[in-house]
Amino acid sequence: MPGFLAEDLLLLQTQPAFFITVCVILGLMVGSFLNVVIYRLPKMMEREWRCQCQELLNPEQHVEEDPPMTLAKPRSACPVCGHKISALENIPILSYLFLAGKCSACKTPISLRYPLIEALTGALAGLIACQFGYSAMALAALVFTFALIALTFIDFDTQLLPDDITLPLLWLGLLYNMNIGFTDLHSAVIGAMAGYLILWSIYWLFKLVTGKEGMGYGDFKLLAAIGAWFGWQLLPAVILLSSVLGSVIGIALIIVAKRGRQVPMPFGPFLAIGGVAALFWGTELSRFYLA
Q: Which of 50, 56, 150, 189 gives a 20 to 30 Å CA spacing to 179?
């Protein structure tokens, strides 16, 4: 068994195509799990908040508890008929195609977003393998990217950026950069502080001027995490890119989709795009705006 493991590791190191293929398959599998995280984590947070509010407001009143929910339990099921999804029905992308995008029991259409998230995660994992090769940096980049994908779609659905993801992501960035990862530790610490304080300052300035909240605290923590991974030098590029994207898409939604100006739009997905851009083209971005 150890011999086979050594041969597999050697194959990953010496055959880039094999390593890329393994990363794509891993990305597809993780994408399937991220679908569960995106759906369940906000619901788990909501249940926790309800329990906390109940304890504070009326601790003596007995409230019937909801069935326990974690990322692992209960088993995934169709929300309409309750059909338990089998292992064969949970193969990334292939199961969706085999089932023709419908529940095998009640034929209710399955959202196209599930295979799209799996495909996106697999594609980004393959690009990371191409960019960084077989290395610790590739593993770190995969973890960073998987977290951003989960945050992006949770923010789209709920306008929340859970601390359960943003804070570990921040600390992992600092930990990885202790021995010169994507940047040095000094730049990473300043990046985490500056990332939080920049958006925190904009938030309070906007609130003082307009009396409204322009963004949430989760956005501060996400930019702080990006700063912890790539250092303060890339923060201007990330902020500029995410702001331009957010403005263009926001204006397009108002004009084309007749979206109301007062309807809030999550900023986290645009920060996540800026973070991915910093991952792949950080050096080029810093040279561009520093020049």
A: 150
